[in-house]
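Q: My labmate handed me this sequence with no annotations at all. I'd like to see what the chain might look like in three dimensions before we decide whether it's worth expressing. Could you predict it?
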Amino acid sequence: MRRFWQRLKKALRPRIAQRITRAGLWFTITILLTGVGAFLSANNLIFLILSALLATLVVSGNLNRLTLAGLEVEFEPPEHLFAQETASGRIVIRNTKSWFPSFALRLSSANDDGLRLPVFIPLIAPGDVVTFYGDVRFRRRGRYRENGFEFSSRFPFGFAERRAAVTLLAEVLVYPELEERCLNEPLFVELLAEAEVRRQGRGTEFHQLRPYRFEDDARHIDWRSSARHGEMYLREFAVEQMEDVELWLDLGGWRLPEFEQAVRAVASQSFELNRRGLRVTLRTQECDLAVPEQTDIYGLLKYLALVEAEPLARPFSESGVSAAAQILLYTPVRERAPAALLHRAICPSEPA
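A: Here is what I predict for the chain of 352 residues:
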């Protein structure tokens, strides 16, 4: 019922709303005072002035309506858009009127998602098209099917500001927000270090020399190069195959805030693992997605943009845990984690 009433209010809301400005208020008061003076004095000159003021008000309203009429908007979002990220989207405004231009237009977003800052367009000639890029931002992940924009104008005299709502049915897909702090999770840092060490230890073909890091295997230190440069250098070998890292996301038993936190963490860590050249597998009760075998990283992020918690989802079984794979599990409570993954389980609801 709540959704029904919201849709009903939206349907009954006028497409063009009007707000009287301060200048319009003073002009209206002037008309009233002039009218009172004209009737009290019966002076024809004052009646002529009153007529001119009323005509100015009527002409101003009609010109304002004509300015907002016949406008079409197209919005092309960026190919990859993350929540809370400011990106540049292409906006096309077309004046379909064949004889009257549109003056002093202001385009803004009708809600908190979409166009960040209003855009001012001084003039659009009849039949002309204006194209520009504006900063857009969306607060939450997901699919946005209705993108609301709003035209407003005070042309010609600023007595009233009229606003015309425009709803675009273009679909916008927003990936989960990437958070830097998710990469500092101790279990993820440990898993990443293990994956890097295992990757560097594989392969037989010499690749390069690079400075030694504390997590590197000391067996591969090149002592001659280290002595020549005065610091520790490591011999790095080419890897025949990318290292496997699996991120498991339990869909059952979540509260919404913790689930969104887990989705952001999985998205951030998957993106970082892929950037480092590691093979990433995302596993939930619904599907397994392997990057790059089954999809690319953006296909994985698309799934995370739309995934929802399933209260009745069963916990992962012990049989699915591979001893060879490096696994990180996100689960609402540790009781749902397989025994073999208890040391790799992260529960966002638990205090750090």
